[in-house]
Amino acid sequence: VAATAGVLAGAGLWSHRHPRWVWTALGATASAQAAVAPLLLIHFGSIPLLAPPANLVAAPLVALSTSVGGIGVVAGLEPLTAIGVAAADLVLGVARAGRDLPQLGWAGALSVAGAGLLALRRGMRPLVAIGAAAALTAWVVVPGLPPGGPEMIVLDVGQGDAILLRDPAGTAVLFDGGPDPGVLRRALASRRIDRIDLLVMTHEHADHLTGLVGITRYASVARAWVAPGLAEDGVAGEVLAELRTAGTLIEAPRVGWSASVGSFSLEVLGPRRRYASPNDGSLVMTVTARGATALLAGDIEVIAQREIGPVHADILKVPHQGAATSDPEWLGALGASVAVISVGPNDYGHPSEAVIAVLESGGAEVLRTDRDGDVTVRFDQVGAAAVAGHTTALRWLP
Fold it and tell me: Do residues 237 and 263 make contact, with C-beta atoms less than 8 angstroms apart?
């Protein structure tokens, strides 16, 4: 409804310009995008910066596909149907080409709107106004520089987990992929990551693995560690089949396995045995770099936590979106300075206020992806830099 209102309001915005059909279509699609922008930002947290020109290319193809293809189907004329199918394929091609284009959060969207309105008020031509808006917001969409030291990024993927380790040399280790392939793809593309040195699939649940579907189409994966007994069906089976086809070395590490990947030293702590719950069967690891240790605990719950026993961690990825399925004594004994909860909008009551209270009472600074966005932890500073969008707040910790 909002998009339709935008089309009706904007179709005549620049229709006096020539060629008229181009300016009419551009006005309609830009107005439609502006109308739905608040809804996209509220529900998804971002909007595509270049959707109007993508729609401008796709619109005539959609018209061709539906009209010519429809006539072909009704009349039984296969050549016309084939033309409709070919046009539909081109529409999908536009979508695939545009899926990794820059996305804008609230700050970027407001900057674009402000720059565009300012340019128009000063009498600039529409294309100049659009260009000014894009230039002003380049800092929002241009990938950042390599990190100054080894870091762990808990990506804001919604209700699920995706954790990226990277260092100045370009090493990339990815733990899980979250629930949405598009979100993960954009997160890696924005950091110019097209090679994963080690991919860790902690357990079979979709909120951790669905985002990995199709990963080998845009990033090579050298090596993968998967939870012992990981299911060969469903999403897990699809990802494993894709990795095998790409020639990825796949291993199921046991407790005590360790590896050095770039600046990072990894050690496997669990699972200690087979469990009835896939959550307790999560791969659990410590990651050490520059003297600081992070505990990546998957979704383990009380039983597995007690069997793993006491662990010291400077940084904790809180298990299971901070659900009330953790042992408070185990959490409190970790001694973490920073605790990161990967969580999104949900009806499960995650994160638990009791879990947050235990962590804070133990001296941890609790950060949440649903409120703070991507959360970045710098190992070499034994502290945390919380990144919400592109605003960095750095706090030194003892």
Answer: no
What's the rounded Cα separation, in Å, for the pair 235 and 205?
8
Query: What's the CA gap between 57 and 29, in Å, rounded?
Result: 11
The Cα–Cα gap between 28 and 33 comes to 9
Residue 131 to residues 19, 112, 346, 363, 379, Cα–Cα distance (Å): 19, 10, 38, 48, 39
Helical H runs in the chain? Answer: 2-10, 20-44, 51-75, 78-98, 106-121, 126-136, 138-141, 181-190, 206-209, 234-245, 302-308, 328-333, 353-361, 369-372
Q: Are 202 and 174 in contact (CB under 8 A)?
A: no
Give the residue from 227, 385, 392, 389 showing the smallest Cα distance to 315.
Answer: 385
C-alpha span between 121 and 215 (Å, rounded):
45
CA distances (Å), origin 396, targets 43, 74, 271, 276, 393: 33, 69, 33, 41, 10
**196 pLDDT exceeds 70?**
yes
Q: How many CB atoms lie within 10 A of CB 40?
A: 18
pLDDT score at 54: 83
Order of strands across the sheet with 375-378? 249-251, 223-226, 198-201, 172-175, 163-166, 151-154, 375-378, 383-388, 391-395
DSSP for 152-183 reads EEE---SSS--EEEE-TT--EEEE---S-HHH
Residues 6+ apart with CB under 8 A from 376: 151, 152, 153, 154, 384, 385, 386, 387, 392
Dihedral over Cα of 300, 303, 308, 310: its sign: positive
Q: What pTM did the predictor assign?
A: 0.69
The answer to whether 36 and 4 have CB atoms below 8 angstroms apart is no
Question: Cα(167)–Cα(261) distance, rounded to whole angstroms?
Answer: 10
Whether the Cβ atoms of residue 369 and residue 344 lie closer than 8 Å to each other: yes
Give the C-alpha separation, 102 to 113, whole Å: 16
pLDDT at 334 over 90: yes
Residues 119-138: pLDDT tens digits? Answer: 666 655 555 555 655 555 55
The DSSP letter of residue 294 is E
